[in-house]
Structure formats: structure tokens, C-alpha cells
């Protein structure tokens, strides 16, 4: 409970500092300006377009996966749907530029075919495309369990009755989607509203900015804390409204992993329907694999052609690891005690369990940039220079990753308590003895996965390093942002590929070392 109070205090103090820094007059003046309303319009426009495209395409792709259960590579492709979760936004942005930019793979292919085309990847179109890259897999993973929830007998009856594809959709699938689709769409909308790195890199200028980007620019380029605090409060209000929308749209849908397959009796479907499913699955695969492949290929090519300051790259790599590992450890120190306390209080003290669960999801309710700016304002009262930057980056990343680590740890804790609580009470096994002999062997794989995910997410941090970093403290993500901003695409290719490989290696090493052989 003390850890939950500490986390709530940190978040609350950061928000109070924002209010104090902004001031009532500043809030009224800035929030009523045309600048803020322009930011709000762009934020909602790009989020709405991204959500509609991601959700619509997600429905079609999830339906194709549900109908095609036996094609080679199905499980691997579903596994690829998890890649955007740990892939840093800027790495994906580079991959999208490498494929769809003015000198990208697509433009070169069209040029080779005699078609002169220079796609403009910057602006609203590029932002929406990048959001679809990230959120289409999420939509598929959220919607696919809906098809698995439909009883097999329903499919058999539809085949016996000879129902058409449209009748199946209208009478069987649409009632299911009415439960699952609102939650998926609301979640995607909330993520797009809070988007930072994608809009920062692909927005194309101050005319295309979200509240998160506006706060970053007000601090890093103008160093105007009152303006930044006011904008952060505006982003916080919008984020809370979207969170309420997402929570209200959950309904009674049961969100699963999307891995489980079930043989459905779809009858003798026309060849055209099977071809359409194949096209949809292939298009989704190309959308996901293309930028990743381009990043790796251009990265290895850049090793030969690009002129890089390798001492700068090496320093950025060490800084990335040096900041990510402490942030991951702090995440675990915050999340694990609260999850254990929540599990212990669920049956005996439900009110305490509810408070702990609320504390665990509290960072999601707060805009990352608002929380980061609040931490920045607090830390500058007592720290300066490098110590302030290091503490701020580690603390911000740890707080923001806590909900994701808790989501991994909670099922394992519930499983451990369900198996051994009664026996441990009967035998009087408590405290360190229970942890060492009973809980640790069961929780170790999940702890390893949670720690690895936290390290991977912290390794791709841009918000913390953007607020607290400087020329002496640049991780690979900030180095990549600088290279993209200066259009040094050769160096950016190498940095993006290195960051992607570093995340993969760090994830595997941490998960195996901490999780042991039982780690997935």
C-alpha cells in the first residue's frame, strides 16, 4: 500500500506543479487562443482518421484470419502483430519513410516502371499511415477473440442453412462486433490522441501538432515553462476524456490473446472469398514487414555507405542501456509489490484491492508529456544538470511502464495464490520463506517477461530524453530524431537498425537471465 501511495503522490505532485506553473491567467489566455484550438482540431482529426482506418482494416483482417486457419505461417504472422508494442515509434517512422518517402522503395519501384511519383510522407497522410502501422495489429489482436467466442454450433447451423457471406456477417458477426469493436476503436483513438514521436517526426511543421508535441516544442525550443504547463493541462484534459470514453466502451467484451485458433465450419466458400482473405492477410503482412525489412536492409547498406561518428553512436548506445536498465528495475520495484498486495487483498480487503488497481492504471490516465513536464518542474527545484536529467528520465520511464508490467505480472500472481494460498496458510509458510520456496518459482517467468518488456520500452524512450536530455546526454532514439530532422538518412538507417537489434537482444537477454528456462 505504501508503494501505491508513493506512486499516487509522485503523479499528484507532478500535476500540482503544472497548475502552479501555468497560473490561472495563463490558462485562460492560452486555452482561449486560436493556436490551442488549431492543435485540438488537428489532434482530433488525425486521431479520428487513424481510428477509422485502423478499425475498419482491422475488422477485415481479423475476419480473414478467423476464416483462414490453416495457411502456412499463420502463427508467425500473428506473433508479428506484437512487434509494434516494443518497436520504438521513431524506428517505425524511419521504416515508413524508407518505404513510402520521396526516395523510398515505393518511389524507386514506380520510377523503374516508368512512373514518376514522389509521395509526400510528411503531414496528415504520413501521420495516419504510421498510426495504422501501429494500431492495425492492436485492432486484430483485440477483435480476433470475438470470432473465437462464437459457438461452433452457430457456424455449423449457418453452413447447413446455406447462409450467404452477407447474412453471416449481418446475423452472426455484427452482433459480436457490437460488443468488441467499440472497445478496440476507443483504445486506438486514445492512443492516437496521445501520439508524440510519430507526429513530431512526420507532422511536417507547427501546423501539424498534438498537445504532446506542442509541450515538447515549448520546452525544448522556446523554454517557456508556463506555456508548456498550460498546454500539458490541455492535453491532460483531453487524455482523461478519451480514457473515460475507452472505459465506457468496454461493455461485456472479453479481450483475449488472439492466439487460439478454432476450426470453423464455413461451408464451401467461393474461391473469390478465399482470394479476398488472402489479399487482406497479404496486405497486412506487407504493411508490417515492409518498414521493418527496409530498416534492416538500409541499415546494413548504410554501414558501408554512411559516414558515421562511431564514438557518438557508441556513447548513445551505452547511454540508452544505462538509462533503460535502471528504469526497468524501478518499474519492477513499483509494480510487483502493488500486484502482490492487490492479490492478497482481493478476497479479504476488496476496497484496498480496488485502490491498488486504480494506482496501477493511474499513469495511463495521465498524459505522458504532462507527467514528464511535472517531473521536470519538480526536479529542477532541487537538482541541476546531469543528475536531474538521469533521475528524471529513469523516474518518468518507470512510472509510465508500470501499468504494462502489472498487466503481465497480475495473471501469474493470481495463479500462484489460487494454487498455494490455502496450503501456505495451513502450514504457516509466510514472508521470505514463502517467496523463496513457493512464489518465486511460479512468478519468475512472468517477472522476466515484465522486466524485459520494461527495458525494451525504456530503450526506445523519446519523451524523457527529449525533456531532460541535452548534447551530452543523447540516447539512440534522440540521435535518430536528430538525424531524421537533418535528413541524414544514411546515418539514420544505421541508428534505426542498431536500435531495433539492441532492443531485440536486450529483451531476449533480460528475459532469459531473469525468467530462466521457463521463460517463453
Structure characteristics:
MetI-like fold
Short overview:
This protein is mainly alpha-helical and about 525 residues long. It is built from 22 helices and no strands.
What do you see in this structure?
- By secondary structure, this protein is mostly helical.
- The protein has two domains: 33-147 and 178-260 and 272-305, Orthogonal Bundle (MetI-like fold); 307-520, MetI-like (MetI-like fold).
- The protein is 80% helix and 0% strand.
- It contains 22 helices and no strands.
- The chain has helices at residues 2-22, 24-31, 34-67, 74-80, 83-86, 89-100, 105-112, 124-148, 152-160, 165-193, 197-202, 211-220, 225-248, 271-305, 310-348, 350-365, 368-379, 385-427, 431-459, 463-468, 476-485, 489-515.
- Helix 12 runs antiparallel to helix 13.
- Mean pLDDT is 81; it is low at 251-267.
Secondary structure elements and their pairing?
Layout: H1 2-22, H2 24-31, H3 34-67, H4 74-80, H5 83-86, H6 89-100, H7 105-112, H8 124-148, H9 152-160, H10 165-193, H11 197-202, H12 211-220, H13 225-248, H14 271-305, H15 310-348, H16 350-365, H17 368-379, H18 385-427, H19 431-459, H20 463-468, H21 476-485, H22 489-515
Helix pairs in contact: 1-13, 1-16, 1-17, 2-13, 3-8, 3-10, 3-14, 6-8, 6-14, 6-22, 8-10, 10-13, 12-13, 13-17, 14-22, 15-16, 15-18, 15-19, 16-18, 17-18, 18-19, 19-22, 21-22
